[in-house]
């Protein structure tokens, strides 16, 4: 086999070519210059091919380009003209609108409740008479600003007008009602179950972390109140969430804030309006004032974010064998947040 030779250096030396290599960011083009330089330094074609990880024929082609036109021709790359898209721009927009606003079942095309590339592929062929691969469809949807993500729940019954009225009401209450002799608290209750939360965590590749379980599950109900002005919290565990334990929580709040008007923002759960609660409020009416959240509006209650923080921090991915174990985990969290009211406000999105 004929030895490769540089017949025209075009005023380039191995040293100059090495410097040029460092300036080239495109790896394939840098590889071309390296191959020519190595041949110029005396290496055999098969040795160069092994060093730059290409075949000898490719090295020979690089040398021929350099001999003919120097570095300019060596680095020139012909770019194929753009291929006409399978679908016109108008058709692409129709596909995007289809995916975002309908389901295969609604169109009577398939029983599925969501589009995937397989179903979409058959629909496009039927609708436009165009055969297109699933990968091409995936790339098309990405170009149109879509991504393959898991949906999230949203409460469909939330009334935007009632939520806006609630915000205006709260602004007025904060200005007119809340003062040195009163306190504004957002309250709620949540179940803490031993199997409640699994979250993404680190584990060895091929070995998914396993959290033991008995098959029957202990749980603790937790009542909570948070002051969005100073980050102070009151958490009260109970065996269950019912009218009786809710009254116990109200008495805890009364002891915590004696001789003050306690303004409570809470949802419309039945236990908040039970008969025994109404009787209690008639007797203690001068101490409490209830403000109901709009229906289906948990996002208006900052304490929901406290519950998520609690469960992600001390409950997730851990086996709790009984109620006492859960209660100890909650107690650790309570001790932590009581010392960090500023962090509480940041977590709730209420920091100044």
TrEMBL record:
<dbReference type="InterPro" id="IPR009057">
    <property type="entry name" value="Homeodomain-like_sf"/>
</dbReference>
<dbReference type="InterPro" id="IPR038717">
    <property type="entry name" value="Tc1-like_DDE_dom"/>
</dbReference>
<dbReference type="GO" id="GO:0003676">
    <property type="term" value="F:nucleic acid binding"/>
</dbReference>
<dbReference type="InterPro" id="IPR025959">
    <property type="entry name" value="Winged_HTH_dom"/>
</dbReference>
<feature type="domain" description="Winged helix-turn helix">
    <location>
        <begin position="114"/>
        <end position="168"/>
    </location>
</feature>
<feature type="domain" description="Tc1-like transposase DDE">
    <location>
        <begin position="184"/>
        <end position="325"/>
    </location>
</feature>
<dbReference type="InterPro" id="IPR012337">
    <property type="entry name" value="RNaseH-like_sf"/>
</dbReference>
<dbReference type="Pfam" id="PF13551">
    <property type="entry name" value="HTH_29"/>
</dbReference>
<protein>
    <submittedName>
        <fullName>IS630 family transposase</fullName>
    </submittedName>
</protein>
<dbReference type="InterPro" id="IPR047655">
    <property type="entry name" value="Transpos_IS630-like"/>
</dbReference>
<dbReference type="Pfam" id="PF13358">
    <property type="entry name" value="DDE_3"/>
</dbReference>
<dbReference type="InterPro" id="IPR036397">
    <property type="entry name" value="RNaseH_sf"/>
</dbReference>
<dbReference type="Pfam" id="PF13592">
    <property type="entry name" value="HTH_33"/>
</dbReference>
